[in-house]
Specification:
heterodimer, A: mainly alpha, MetI-like fold, globular, B: alpha+beta, Rossmann fold, OB fold (Dihydrolipoamide Acetyltransferase, E2P), six-stranded mixed beta sheet, five-stranded antiparallel beta sheet, 18 strands
Amino acid sequence: MATKASRSAARVMIAPSVLLLLGWMVIPLALTLYFSVLRYNLLMPGANPFIGVENYTYFLTDPAFTDAIINTLLLVGGVLTITVLGGIGLAILLDQPMWGQGIVRILVIAPFFVMPTVSALVWKNMFMNPVNGLFAHLASALGMQPFDFFAIAPLASIIGIVSWQWLPFATLILLTAMQSLDSEQLEAAEMDGAGPLARFRYIMLPHMARAITVVILIQTIFLLSIFAEILVTTNGGPGTASTNLTFLVYAESLLRFDVGTGSAGGVVAIILANIVAIFLMRMIGKNLDT
Amino acid sequence: MGRITLHGVTKNFGDTEVIRPLDLEIEDGEFVVFVGPSGCGKSTLLRLIAGLEDVTAGRIEIDGVDATGVPPAKRGLAMVFQSYALYPHMSVRKNIAFPMRMAGLDKAEQNRRIESAAAALNLTDYLDRRPGQLSGGQRQRVAIGRAIVREPAAFLFDEPLSNLDAALRVGMRMEISELHTRLKTTMVYVTHDQVEAMTMADKIVVLQHGVIEQVGSPLDLYREPRNLFVAGFIGSPKMNLMTGEEAERRQAATMGIRPEHITASPTEGLWQGTVGVSEHLGSDTFFHVHLDGRADPVTVRAGGEVSLHHGDMIYLTPDESRIHRFDAQGMRLA
């Protein structure tokens, strides 16, 4: 891309894909914005008059909205905590030389390839079911009362399922980071009198900082829009105990057929996601520099 | 104090014997260089002394105390690695402070030692930079600084200059030698470069296939190589080794003569040959001479400004008193 001619040629070449991507993004966004200021309910066909911010007021003052926000943050925060801590631990374990390393690594990564709906169903019916689930059998074998996961701790159960899905991703990224650590650095630290804990604290953790940042940023994007697991297991209930923002938007537009309020919720979700993103970049984005 | 003694030290990796049973005495304050071709076990030997590898058999004593099972940090040795192994996320100051921080030294003492090490190594202006912002030579000095502040019983260097360019290498060689004169601490230095070994060492240990071939001062090794391997390894350019008739005339299986102990003349001499490639270094000139009826060329050192050209006829005369004779097993004949 050195000469003026090649630069302008390059611009012409990438123009179609830029336009396509732009249309792909801008048209749905514009339509959502447009719908969000209309009274537009599929159960009441007819005119769709302009009503200003009424949809937004309705959505934001809905008591379910506050619950959804709290649940979203708990879900994202809980899964991030579990996957990052567990990922660091697993990465360090898997980095040790051991017999059958290749197979173990593939096994660890496997959950990531299971579709969200499938894994949620498997967890719901095979593990967490209070009658037939493995955990229930285990509990009765030990003479305890089976625990009804989705009735008593619906959000925690979903956090568990989602963590199980995302732990492999965190492990994979952090494992590659561990493998790129120069072993002479660890040996130098050992010679310098650093014990295993100090080596972890002063050498491994700083080395993995950038990978941890990447894991947190990427996971946050996906975790903000968790949907399938909730739909399959609890349907957002009991009440709103496991409803997150995505599920609330779904409930508004597709269960109550209120396209206008659903769109308003979608816009609110976009704004919230961006706020979270800005905070994240402020807090940990500096790790990505240098 | 830093006297290191190895008794019958052996190291196996699986079935491969990397170090055969080996005894070695390193005196306090000595500059010892382990030298040998790559894969000869010299780095492994250093790592055994450091404690980064466990010995398979044998005993390592530091200052008369058995240190075989002692963890690396407790041996009182400091190591400078080939890749420098600086901590990239810490400033130079924090890098140098790290071993003292681990030892729990108080801040004032830490700062005092950092300042004096930085002054000695010309690092004062760089203390707040990260290793990534330093040049190769500066990184090398930081690594040395990190070793100095621990005030160790001995320094271990693992090919510390191999990542530097030629000019810098000569400079750092001098600096390390000066450091040794000033600190008078034992230093063990591993290199594959015989020039580094010759210029820096009090005592050279030549290794091959995990066996010590010879131990001695640089000039001992130069004057009296114990066997063919040492003869070929020490000295630059290499000693000329000849077998066949010439050697037999001197009652040896192989005879060796260094390039600097052959006189070249355009008119008369013992051996006759033609000049091949010549390397003009200014101070010296090295001729590769093809002797009649001999496949390998003989290297000859001549004065700096001798003008002989490719294809010229030349006569060579070896200095008979400087000829090295070896038996069929490659051992030196008295």
